[in-house]
Amino acid sequence: MEIERKFTIKQLPEDLKRYPFHHIEQCYLNDSPVVRVRKEDDEYYLTYKGVGMMAREEYNLPLNREAYYHLREKADGKVISKRRYLIPLPHPAVREGLPKPPEDYSLTIELDVFDPPFSPLVMAEVEFGSKEAAEAFAPPDWFDEDVTYHPEYHNSYMALQT
Q1: What is the CATH number of domain 2-160?
Q2: Where are the domains of the chain?
Q3: Which SS3 state, helix, strand or coil, does residue 10 take?
Q4: Are the C-beta atoms of 79 and 64 separated by less than 8 Å?
Q5: Which of 11, 38, 46, 103 has a Cα at 20 to 30 A from 79?
Q6: pTM of the predicted protein model
Q7: Catalytic residue among 19, 28, 105, 153
Q8: Residue 68 is a catalytic residue
């Protein structure tokens, strides 16, 4: 089960270059259900995503390079290319009035900086272990709008727009 929230951001972190990142290229074979092929650095995957916005089933199957490029040719829409920065978020805040998480609780912000034709779009995604944790999350100050329930910010929607 994938449980994640998505946000636009107000500004890039000043020290962005110090964080590890992945080069990601992905495209879509279907949008309902979502079937995606992805190249992440030198690894390749076929992903199935079930119905849902914040929480949905997700299955990743490994592909080899040849299978990825074969399926990429069959994809609909545009290829999405982006750089994904992995930013640790130790001791994430929770909404006021909710219990604080354990002291060792941490999350990772996946900050996606999109290449053309989707630039200058930048979005942050945060994955959670439960729906309750996702709903309790209070985003950092540099996050802007919560777009989790806005389909136009889902990569599958973006790729299939002409």
Answers
A1: 2.40.320.10
A2: 2-160
A3: coil
A4: no
A5: 11
A6: 0.94
A7: 28
A8: no
